[in-house]
Amino acid sequence: MKPRHKTAPDSPDQLFDIDSLLNDEEKAVRSTVRQFVDEKVKPHVADWYDTGQLPARELARQFGEIGLLGMHLEGYGCAGMSATAYGLACLELEAGDSGIRSLVSVQGSLAMQAIHAYGSEDQRTQWLPTMASGEAIGCFGLTEPDHGSDPGGMRTLAKRDGEDWVLSGTKMWITNGSVADVAVVWAQTEDGIRGFVVPTSTTGFTANEITTKMSLRASVTSELVLDGVRLPSSAMLPGAQGLSGPLGCLSEARFGIVFGVMGAARDCLETAIDYARTREQFGRPLGAFQLTQAKLADMTLEYGKGVLLALHLGRLKDAGRVAPKQVSLGKLNNAREAIRIARQCRTILGANGITSEYPVMRHANNLESVLTYEGTSEMHALVIGQALTGHQAFR
Question: What are the catalytic residues?
Answer without folding.
Answer: 374
